[in-house]
Specification:
This protein folds into two domains: 1-115 and 255-293, no CATH class; 127-229, no CATH class. It is built from eleven helices and seven strands. It is of the alpha+beta class. 45% of the residues lie in helices and 18% in strands. The two termini are 27 Å apart. It has helices at 4-18, 23-30, 33-42, 49-62, 71-84, 116-124, 186-196, 207-210, 212-225, 232-245, 269-287, and strands at residues 95-102, 107-114, 129-138, 142-146, 152-156, 165-174, 179-185.
C-alpha cells in the first residue's frame, strides 16, 4: 500500500516550489532571523547578508520577469550566489538569474548562471592565476592560430575597419609565466548554443539574444576555466552555470521519477536552504489570521 504521508507530501512540496515570487514577501522573508543566519553561514567574509538582500531586490526591480518565477527558485539562486561570493546583477556581471519555464512544475523558474566577471573573480582567488583576457576576432583582423607543442595566437586587430565578429577567445596567464587559451569560431559558438542552450517555449529572456558576443566570450572563458589550476569554487560555478544554461532544475527529484526526463540531480546546499526557507514561509502563511486550515 502507498504511504499516505508520502502521497500528501509530494503535492505540498510541489506547491511550495510553484509559489510565485512576490518582492514584498521575499524581502520580508529575507529579513527574518532564520534567513539572516543562513546567509551569514553561507557568505564569505567580504559580503554581508544585507548586501545580498539589496542585490536581490534590485535584481527583481530591474528584471520584472523574475517576479513571475517561483520564490523557491529565486531563493535558491540567491543562496548559490552567496555560497560562491558573487554579486547578483545583470547578465554582464558576476552572476544573474534567467527566467525559464519549467514544464514539469508548470511554472517559471529563475535559473542561476555565472557571468564572465564571476568566472574571472573566482579564477583570481587562486594564487596560480595572474591574468585573464577575453578577445573578439573580427573578419578584417590579422589572425593566426597555431596548435601543438607550442600553441599560440597572433592577433593584430583592424581598428579602422574590423568587420563582423568571426571568433572569440580567452587567454589565461599563470603566475609561473605559462599561458593557456581557448578559441571558438562564431560558427562553433552558435552550434554550442543550439546544443546546450536551445530556445524553449515560454522562455521570456535569454542573454544570448541581448548579448551574444559577451555570452560567446564567456563560453570560451568557461571552457578554459575547466583547465585552470584555480579555486574549487570556480569548478563548482562552471558546473552550476552549465546546468543553468541547459535549463536543468536541481530539485526535479521531488517529483514522480516517471515524470522526469532527465536523471534526478542531487540538491546543493543552496537548494536545501531555499527549500527550508520556503517551507518556513508556508508555515508563516498558514499562521496568518484568516488563512485556511
Amino acid at each position: 500500500m502507498p504511504n499516505p504521508t508520502n502521497t500528501q507530501q509530494a503535492p505540498k512540496q510541489q506547491a511550495v516550489q510553484q509559489r510565485a515570487c512576490e518582492p514584498a514577501t521575499l524581502e520580508k522573508l529575507m529579513g527574518t532571523a532564520t534567513m539572516q543566519k543562513q546567509l551569514q553561514a553561507a557568505l564569505p567574509r567580504h559580503i554581508t547578508p544585507q548586501q545580498i538582500v539589496r542585490q536581490a531586490m534590485t535584481l527583481l526591480r530591474t528584471t520584472p520577469q523574475l517576479c513571475e518565477c517561483s520564490q523557491f527558485s529565486v531563493l535558491s539562486g540567491i543562496f548559490k550566489a552567496a555560497e560562491l561570493g558573487l554579486a547578483l546583477s545583470g547578465p554582464l556581471g558576476q552572476a544573474y538569474l534567467v527566467p525559464r519555464w519549467n514544464n514539469k512544475l508548470k511554472c517559471k523558474e529563475a535559473t542561476f548562471q555565472v557571468g564572465y566577471k564571476g568566472i574571472f573573480q573566482l579564477a583570481y582567488r587562486s594564487s596560480k592565476v595572474k591574468k585573464i583576457e577575453m578577445r573578439t576576432r573580427h573578419l578584417n583582423d590579422h589572425f593566426t592560430l597555431r596548435l601543438g607543442t607550442q600553441s599560440h595566437i597572433d592577433h593584430v586587430p583592424n581598428l579602422e575597419n574590423p568587420g563582423e565578429a568571426v571568433g572569440y577567445y580567452t587567454v589565461a596567464t599563470l603566475t609561473d609565466g605559462s599561458q593557456d587559451f581557448e578559441y571558438m569560431s562564431k560558427k562553433q559558438v552558435q552550434e554550442h548554443r543550439e546544443r546546450f542552450s536551445p530556445k524553449r517555449e515560454n522562455q521570456t529572456f535569454s542573454p544570448w539574444d541581448s548579448d551574444f558576443d559577451a555570452m560567446a566570450q564567456k563560453t570560451t572563458a568557461r571552457m578554459l576555466g575547466k583547465r585552470l589550476p584555480a579555486a574549487t569554487e570556480l569548478q563548482e560555478a562552471i558546473a552550476e552555470d552549465e546546468r543553468g544554461e541547459q535549463g536543468m532544475v536541481a530539485m526535479t527529484n521531488l517529483l514522480d521519477p516517471a515524470e522526469v526526463s532527465e536523471p534526478p540531480m542531487t540538491p546543493s546546499k543552496s537548494d536545501d536552504l531555499a527549500e527550508e526557507l520556503a517551507r518556513e514561509d508556508a508555515k508563516q502563511e498558514e499562521r496568518e489570521p484568516g488563512s485556511e486550515g
